[in-house]
User: Fold these one by one.
Assistant:
Number 1:
Amino acid sequence: MKKNQNKKAKVKKDEVKVKKNATEKVKKTNEEITSSKPSKEKKAKMYISYKMRMVLYFAAFIISFAICIIFATKTIEREKVLPIVYSTNGNINYKVYLNNNNYYNDDYLEMDRAYIASLINYIDLDYHYLFKASQKTNMNFDYKIVADLIIENSNGVHKYLEKKYTLVDTKTKKLEDSSVLDFEENVKIDYGYYNNLANSFRAEYGVDTNSYLNVYLEVLSKTDEDVNYDINETNRVNIKIPLSEKAIEIALDKTNQNTNKQVFTSGKVIFNKIPLIIEIIFFILTSYILSKIISYLLLLYKPKTAYDKYVNKILNSYDRLIVESKTQINLNDYNVTEVKSFNELLDVRDNLKLPIIYFNIVKHEKGIFYIKDSKDIYLITIKNVDLMNK
């Protein structure tokens, strides 16, 4: 008997010890849970109103667009260059070579004198042409020497005959990355040949004539296609040799021999890569912000659906009885009873004295009104498609 009592006492003592250990373990677990809780509550999310969002979007659009324009102006720049100033100078030196005679010991006479026509053998012409520019450039110069035989009436008003003779065929000189072109060309004029033509014309037709030979160096200068300015002009260096006269004086035409001009250049177009990249980035950003502004504006002007009209009518009429929810309820956790009309849901509300909860599932299309009573849900679903069919 005594032995059984000792055994019971020992079992009871063990039970008390187990309960004590379990209590201490639960207490320790609660302390760990308590210590693991954050000391500070989470901050509530900042809400930005529709108007404030529109203001922020408009401000961001203006700033982004302005930056885009600024870098667009820096993306393409035109090189600033000074105008090109250039001058041309044409000179003629000549010598008059003589036939054998008893009066002149020299073979030729220098320029700027009077000459007996019958003593002239030929005239030796040296053309000198000089082009100078204020900066290096690339240009082509095409030139030739031409003689125009002119036979006109005695007072020089009308021409009987004008005939061209090419004495030197077209030649080309190139100015490559240089600012100066200087060349000379020589030609010999058979004076007797042209003089006989003029005399024969006068004798054959018996008219009084005034005849001469215009001999000129014609220079066509033009810039290459790859330069950013245009020089395209023709210059003449001209000498006038009288014909059908007993004595002549050779005259130089200095009208077009010397010119001084300037050409304004547009400068090369320079593409800056870094501003271009920044411009593209801000263009994409500006386009995105603009799309957001348009989407927000469309919300204001979107036409109301049958669903919107029906729900707004209910909300306005029963504002005090209805609570709008931002979270959707999980209907699988409740016993759902669907009612046929909103008026029946009002009857349920009157009986249970519970608020009607509204949740918009799909904007402008679908929503639910329901009353939650413990594990029971009384529900009506509103669909735009159903209202349109009525």
Number 2:
Amino acid sequence: MKLAAIDIGSNAVRLQITKVLEYKNEITFKKLEYVRFPLRLGHDVFTTGRISEYNKERFYKLLTAFKNLIDLYEIDAFFGCATSAIRESENGRSLIEHVREGLGLDIKIINGQEEAEMINKVIGLSLGKGNYLHVDVGGGSTELNVYEGKQKILSKSFKLGSVRSLERSDKPEMWEEMKQWIKINIANRYDDICAIGTGGNINKLFELSTDGKTKQMDLETLIATQQKLRSLSNDELLNKLQLNPDRADVIIPASEIYVEVMRTSGAQNIIVPDVGLKDGINFHMYESNYPTANKVIVKN
């Protein structure tokens, strides 16, 4: 079975094509193709409230390319999601409708809760018996989810994100709202909370911070990495660290959110499982078509 997932974010648009391998009671998700394009729809939406004609044209060209790949791979199931940039834009729905009519790709505009639910489908595979705070920082929104063991008990979405911060569209009152929510629901309730981080920026921060032999880093290491990045010029970020341009300018704003969440919640460590919305979409598609009862997911 081959699955295709499209994730339309505020910073980038992603396509992942996955093959599902089943052997006895084990399921393996094998990545066949992954394409990420830095369209940055959030730049338009968080400054003007709508997607520009220029980016509307580029978006349609990109989705046309994705449609060609999907057809070539002869996939069995497709699911596409659009998050905060499309959700908040004045002309986002008409653009999604244009793609549906012209390309036959039915994209669903999801809210923060639905986005969190998709990611949670794969996050649960990384959890043990402890208490966890899942932090997903995107370009336009930050999703917080609280777990006791593998059971999610609380979630909240905030209009804080890397691109939104870059465009100075993040409001101080939203930062305060997030901190107060964390203090009330997490800091005053748990003494042993561990963070779980998802999103492209935390993956890169983790890569820059560790030797890859562990799946977690502590808050002190994350802050040290953040300070190191602040000390470098844009040219050094691009050439010395070889960051992509669309990563170099948002990685520090994203790190500020992760650091603030960890400090406020009291989390001293963050696990980085390297999964995201696209993985959640694939798992959702498989789960919808083939129940996973008595089966074990061995790889994602």
Number 3:
Amino acid sequence: MSTSTVTVTGMTCNHCVASVSEEIGAIPGVTSVDVDLTTGKVVIDSTTDLDPRAVSDAVEEAGYSVGG
């Protein structure tokens, strides 16, 4: 099991959270996605280490970006 944390910028509502969760959840190996709308923090559990580019691409597909 592996845990990754990223910060997503641009989310403003629960629909944003759902979109980000859905796209990241579609990455092979992801077992759970926990998004905090207030902070933008996204904690991702997966069966293997995730490629940061895959996470970034998924976030961008949802219409947001990975920030610092």
